[in-house]
Amino acid sequence: MFSYLCFALVFVAACSAQVQVSNDQPDARNAICKRRNGYYKIDSSCDAYVECTEFVAQQLVCPDGLHFNPYAQWPAYPCGYPQDVPCIGRGAAQPAQPTGDCPHQYGYFVSPAASDENCGQYRLCVAGKAIDRFCPTGLAFNADLGRCDWPDRVASCNADKFLGFSCPAAPTDADGKPLDIVINYKHQGNCYYFFSCEKGRARLLSCDAGLAFDPASGRCIDADLVNCDVLTSVLH
């Protein structure tokens, strides 16, 4: 769903693409068109590019917050989010066009309501308008990647507080060294979720449809075989 949403919103951005016409002579601009239709990068910019249509070139720039993808194949939309299209070896992007709620016209950003205990909320900006969103259950928003991630990978997130769970100390071998194994623990209040611990890192996971977590075996089994007496917990 997250990936589908990204695609849909980039499509919306395509309808808002800005045009910048080069001051060069038409013959000079059109000389870049080696193919009838195609895109060409501008080395001095992250978001500007040249589009050739019927061997006629025009210089365009992606909407604020998006980068030009030099690997885009015409006629696919050539602009994408920075996390998907890193700007490496090129110049800077256009100046930001912030609004009261968004630092850029398009992009994924940390929500003003987020905290180290509320790490799953983020802000999506579309044409300068903010849309508040939540990551899937058990995931936190990673601002460095612009997407949802495991809480222990998000520096600003207190994973233990966010998940409401801390991994017990791992079993040790004969020499007292922690064993490199994965151990699953039940979720208090919802038997369809469980915590998976590896090297002290907790991950909140869920059983497939029709299954429930069995604390005795530490795995998901037929839900009819699990006594789910407490199913009132609401997860966000």
TrEMBL record:
Signal sequence coordinates: 1-17
Key word Ligase present: no
PROSITE patterns: CHIT_BIND_II
Annotated Gene Ontology cellular component terms: extracellular region
Domain Chitin-binding type-2 per the UniProt entry, residue ranges: 30-89, 99-159, 164-230
Gene Ontology molecular function: chitin binding
Origin: domain of life: Eukaryota
Alphabetically ordered keywords of this record: Chitin-binding, Disulfide bond, Glycoprotein, Repeat, Signal
Gene3D superfamilies: Chitin binding domain
Protein known as: Chitin-binding type-2 domain-containing protein
Originating organism: Mythimna separata
